[in-house]
Amino acid sequence: MDRHARISALLAMLAENGKVEVDEAVAALGASPATIRRDLVYLDEQRLATRTHGGAVADSGSFDLPLHFKTGRAMDEKRRIGQVAAGLAPIGSTTGLNGGTTTLAVARALAARPDLAARESGAPALTIVTNAVNVAGELLVRPYLKVVVTGGVVRAHSYELFGPLAERSLEALSVDLLFLGVDGIDAGFGASAYSDAEASTNLLMVKAAARIVVVADSSKIGRRAFAQICPPAGIDTLVTDKGIEPAAAAQLRGAGVEVIAA
Amino acid sequence: MDRHARISALLAMLAENGKVEVDEAVAALGASPATIRRDLVYLDEQRLATRTHGGAVADSGSFDLPLHFKTGRAMDEKRRIGQVAAGLAPIGSTTGLNGGTTTLAVARALAARPDLAARESGAPALTIVTNAVNVAGELLVRPYLKVVVTGGVVRAHSYELFGPLAERSLEALSVDLLFLGVDGIDAGFGASAYSDAEASTNLLMVKAAARIVVVADSSKIGRRAFAQICPPAGIDTLVTDKGIEPAAAAQLRGAGVEVIAA
DNA sequence: TGCGATACGATCATAACCGCTCAAGTCAAC
DNA sequence: GTTGACTTGAGCGGTTATGATCGTATCGCA
User: Fold this and answer.
1) Same domain assignment for residues A77 and A197
2) How sure is the predictor about A61, in pLDDT bands with cuts at 50, 70 and 90?
3) Of A64, A112, A165, which has the smallest distance from its Cβ to B169's Cβ?
4) Which of A15, A33, A58 delimits the end of a domain?
């Protein structure tokens, strides 16, 4: 039983039951718990499953429930970033979110904001525009949120929608505030992404937004990814974690970016 | 009974009755009161329910909880319908799917079609257009599928996207084949849905399609839901289960619909 | 308003699980 | 045959989930 066979078997179990437990997989595949865990971590990294305590749950079809028992190291920082960023969206505003793990954390924090749920009825407390299907899935049961999805072709890696259809949609929209997840942010180069297709779609979101808040953990700072999304002058605020280098923060502030270290 | 299953069960109870009591949940799920309380606190934090003394109540407006939690029945029939319907899509074609549990079954069957996965590379074996975010989520990891999502406002109940943005997207698209999930199909009234907003979006999908295949389990046959999607003349094929009444099948055939009982 | 019963939150003990690290084993390339 | 990269399995310290206990708060009822 080599690795490939194990992964295939795990995926089959996930497809069958929607979840896998470590013990169960150990018994079925004859590998050690450590190995099974490594495989599940791999599946989690590949976005094919979500790691939980005791196993993993299927991800691709798990729009069943917006539940996440994720336990991880970088997860804590992202959650804090999400908390702080989510507080920046005023009640009643229209807020944009692109794809990525950090914006997903913002989405979760938005969904859990107590002051939004308190509003009994009437107009939604927040309108969310996103081009990422997993972000939409995270938010959609909340009656106090209006969730708008742009159209487009799905990019599997990031769940983002891009292409002409996405651009067509974004031309018709305008948001007060955009939470922009990036692959790199640099005082000279601005915000950037690995994929030029994503960068160009994200640029349209930027253009549709009155205020740009980049959300990025500190590992992204000072990094220049392949494709520029927008120059530093277009960025109003950066929400990151306390791991940011003081020098980098100063540079960004010098470029006109408000820096918040959560 | 792990945590995931408990949370799902609690949500199902909430969707069913609008409330859950701790004792009731303890009896039904076989966990201790402390654990049930912790779960309810979690649901409260996620704004999916409101904690009360003795239990929890569903949030106002969450009658719109996804229908996944309300109906777990007829899964076997739906799967068979999905299998048969998925076989109707030729390799290389562009196929549309709207929202609903039956179309979700079609999506799963499409994703699992061996002849599609066999194609090593090059152009995608199938292009799928959908206005349902959960359908997109079900399909998006497969490299041999190109998944296109229409834009729009998410309706939590069915995961469908509708509204001006959806219409704008659909105007720009055309598909060879549409798998249409409905709330009712009748030889006189045609295909219909409970929500007029969905019906109008679905009508645009119908207009964009060269061939219409309605997928519906036999409980939907002869039923007229509130809003018409399209008249019977617009329907080429119906894929349903063997529970269909012979008389109803004859009527539909008389109206020009090819009837396939899987 | 006062009382009894019930439910609650906090704390703790237990057991399972996790991530991490290290050593041993496997395989391919040179 | 040797080297080197990769994979696997085991041990260890820390974390998480669960269930029980206990003092306190809340609810229903008179």
Assistant:
1) yes
2) very low
3) A165
4) A58
* Residue B28 structural domain: 3-62
Please choose, from the candidates B262, B180, B178, B182, the residue with its C-alpha nearest in 3D space to the C-alpha of residue B223: B182
Q: What nucleotides of chain D have any atom within 7 angstroms of a protein Cβ?
A: 7-11, 15-21, 26-27
Q: Which of chain A's residues have a Cβ under 8 Å away from the Cβ of B138?
A: 60-61, 63
Q: Does B175 touch chain A (CB under 8 A)?
A: no
Cα separation, B151 vs B160, whole angstroms = 10
> Are the C-beta atoms of residues B56 and B50 closer than 8 Å to each other?
yes
pLDDT in tens, chain B (262 residues): 888 889 888 988 888 888 999 999 999 999 999 999 999 999 998 888 899 998 898 876 555 666 666 555 567 888 999 999 999 999 999 999 999 989 999 998 998 888 877 766 667 889 999 999 989 988 877 788 999 999 999 998 888 999 999 999 999 999 999 999 999 999 999 999 999 999 999 999 999 999 999 999 999 999 999 999 999 999 999 999 999 999 999 999 999 999 999 8
- Dump pLDDT digits (tens) for A155-204: 877 889 999 999 999 999 999 999 999 999 999 999 999 999 999 999 99
A29 to chain B, minimum CA–CA distance in Å? 21
For residues A239 and B156, give the distance between their C-alpha atoms in angstroms, rounded to a whole number: 30
Check CB contact under 8 Å for B148 and A151: yes
Cβ-based contacts of B141 with chain A (< 8 Å) = 47-48, 60, 156
Report yes or no on B56 lying in a domain: yes
Element (H, E) at A162: strand A160-162
* B60, B137, B147: residue with CB nearest A137: B137
On whether the CB atoms of residues A224 and A217 are closer than 8 A, the answer is: no
* Averaged confidence pLDDT in chain A: 88
* N-terminal to C-terminal alpha carbon distance within chain B: 34
- Within 8 A of B148 by CB-CB distance, chain A residues are 151-154, 165
Quick one: which of B102, B140, B79, B5 has its CA closest to A57?
B5
Q: Which nucleotide is nearest to B23 (CA to C1')?
A: C7
**Which helix (DSSP H) or strand (DSSP E) does residue A17 occupy?**
helix A3-17
Q: Are residues B8 and B125 in the same domain?
A: no
Instruction: Name the residue among B72, B85, B53, B55 with its Cα closest to residue B5.
Output: B72
Whichever domain contains B33, its CATH number is 1.10.10.10
Closest alpha carbon to C1' of D10, residue: A34
Inter-chain CB proximity A61 and B108 less than 8 Å:
yes
Burial classification of residue B176, based on how many CB atoms lie within 10 Å of its CB (0-12 exposed, 13-18 middle, 19 or more buried): middle
Q: Does A54 contact B150 at a Cβ distance shorter than 8 Å?
A: no
This prediction's pTM: 0.85
- Establish if B69 belongs to a structural domain: no
B198 and B144 in a single domain? The answer is yes
In a domain, B68, yes or no: no
Same domain, A35 and A132: no
